[in-house]
Design a protein that fits this description.
The chain is α+β, with helices and mostly antiparallel strands. The protein contains 17 helices and 11 strands. Bound molecules: protoporphyrin IX containing FE.
């Protein structure tokens, strides 16, 4: 018997229910306060239960137009609701992204939490001390001296791609751009980051990894708008969730193989008394020790390998492919580029791009920058406020998800004249000072900017210069090219292109 004739079990259950009720009421009041503050920010009308989550017309060109129109209507800041309980603030202007990108606001768990089962807490996803330690550890792998040594790899990988394009040209065939540049970029990152030599550009055996990454990309973009699939235990009950899990298992296996192979080389090098080559990214990870002599755990190493494998190839594939597309679409740009590349390579007996050539390819740099502006590989990123902020006079409570919509920032009509037109001259040196640096952020900005930015620019410049030196590019007029939103900007049905050898023009 317990109190007043009630059993102890009933007393304990009543106290627990009362406590739960108080917690729920407190949470609701906190949520309501936040909602009342955020509803002062202008935004689209919301739908009962769904908020704004059903208004985006897919992940296609139509959606991109819808996003651009919204940005034109509200060119600095707007609010949005993912279902009834997840408020978000969209920021699309240099003035509104600056403070958040400069701050220590962490990456949100609503977006980045969705990739945890794939990339774990690698550099892209982690926050706070963990992120700082990894960033410090990995920064030396992107030092100029190291980037310089990677140029040889990029030239050799370009030889293979140029050879493949030559084979299509010999048969007068169109080729799909994404597919070919993807294998090139994968070849480059495998060699530069992991000293892992593969024949991925010429053999079919690595396709499962690429297919799995492509699947993860699409599934991620789809899940983002379906807030009811956020809890893993619900997602894994769906067929898409099971596909996600299968694809994750496959990419993890690839990463584990790379690590095992490298560990093996490290051990045999040590036995032979050879100096260990540890300047690449995986070498740094495997040999790093903290003050107590403790290295990174196997899980931590695999998370970083997964992160770099993904970030290091899918983004540059998108950047290179869309730049080649814009070049083929604009014959006058293509002629000017050919002239520049020819001048830089004049008198050489091979097409190799040397380190000292890179700064001389100024027009090519402008063309790549303009293509990244119109077709940014990473279309949006997210942060969560870790303290109350005021942006454009609006109060933003702590714990609010902030969508930094890169693709809209880069074509915001209040910052870019004639924003949807391809004009590489925007980036000519005399215009550089006119622009707020936060208006051009394809690689993000601030302390969490892209660690691979220079690596990526060098790679894109090298391979594009090598292709254009040999070939004139033409698009297949019968093939419609459409952009598709995924974790990285893709092309819905690919980009079909023909390469005509210069000597045949
Ligand atoms: C055109 C190519 C690329 C573009 C447009 C791009 C874009 C970006 C963007 C926008 C971010 C910020 C992400 C966020 O805040 O969530 C980022 C971060 C990152 N990128 Fe890149 N990236 C490119 C190439 C690369 C390459 C080649 C590598 C590796 C070799 C790389 C590695 C990373 C990593 C590890 C981060 C996380 C950095 C951190 O949080 O400290 N990226 N990138």
């Amino acid at each position: 018997m317990g109190v007043f004739g009630l059993s102890w079990t009933s007393v304990v259950l009543s106290i627990a229910a009362g406590y739960l009720l108080i917690v729920l009421i407190q949470r609701y009041l906190k949520f309501r306060r936040k909602a009342l503050i955020l509803c002062k920010i202008p935004g689209l009308k919301t739908e009962f239960l769904f908020g704004n989550s059903r208004q985006m017309p897919g992940l296609n060109e139509e959606a991109l137009k819808w996003m651009h129109d919204n940005c034109t209507e509200r060119p600095k800041i707007s609010s949005g609701w993912l279902g009834p309980f997840i408020p978000m603030v969209n920021i699309v202007h240099a003035d509104t992204i600056k403070d958040i990108l400069k701050s220590s606001a962490p990456k949100s768990r609503s977006l980045y939490g969705l990739v945890m089962s794939w990339l774990g807490e690698g550099l892209l996803v982690s926050n706070g001390e963990k992120w700082l330690r990894s960033r410090r550890l990995l920064t030396p792998a992107f030092h100029f001296d190291i980037l310089k040594s990677y140029l040889e790899v990029k030239n050799r990988a370009s030889d293979v791609l140029v050879g493949k394009i030559q084979a299509y040209a010999d048969k007068n065939q169109y080729f799909e751009v994404f597919e070919n540049t993807c294998m090139f970029s994968l070849d480059v990152i495998l060699q530069c980051a992991f000293s892992y030599k593969s024949d991925c550009q010429t053999s079919k055996t690595n396709q499962p990894y690429v297919q799995a990454v492509s699947e993860l990309n699409e599934l991620l973009a789809d899940r983002f708008f379906k807030f009811w699939l956020y809890p893993d235990f619900i997602y894994y009950l769906t067929s898409n969730g099971r596909r996600w899990k299968r694809a994750c298992d496959l990419v993890h296996k690839v990463a584990e193989n790379i690590i095992e192979e490298r560990k093996h080389t490290l051990v045999s090098d040590t036995k032979k008394g050879k100096e260990t080559k540890c300047k690449d990214f995986l070498g740094i990870l495997l040999t790093a020790r903290d003050e107590e002599g403790i290295g990174l755990s196997s899980a931590e190493i695999r998370n970083e390998v997964d992160t770099f494998l993904f970030e290091g190839h899918d983004t540059t594939t998108s950047g290179t492919s869309w730049t080649l597309y814009e070049i083929a679409r604009h014959p006058e740009v293509q002629s000017a580029l050919y002239k520049e590349i020819n001048e830089v390579l004049e008198g050489r007996d091979n097409d190799n791009i040397l380190w000292e050539d890179l700064p001389k390819l100024t027009y090519l740099t402008q063309v790549i920058k303009e293509s990244l502006r119109l077709n940014p590989p990473v279309t949006f990123i997210q942060r969560v406020t870790n303290e109350p902020m005021v942006i454009e006079g609006y109060e933003i409570p702590e714990g609010t998800n902030m969508n930094i919509v890169i693709i809209n920032i880069l074509s915001n009509p209040t910052m870019w004249e004639d924003p949807l037109t391809f004009k590489p001259e925007r980036f000519s040196p005399e215009h550089n000072d006119e622009r707020d640096p936060f208006s051009y952020v394809p690689f993000s900005a601030g302390p969490r900017n892209c660690i691979g930015q220079n690596f990526a620019m060098n790679e894109m410049k090298t391979v594009i210069a090598r292709i254009l030196h040999r070939f004139h590019l033409e698009l297949d007029p019968t093939h419609k090219v459409e952009r598709q939103l995924a974790a990285v900007l893709k092309s819905k049905d690919g980009i079909m292109m023909k390469a005509i050898p210069r000597e045949k023009l």
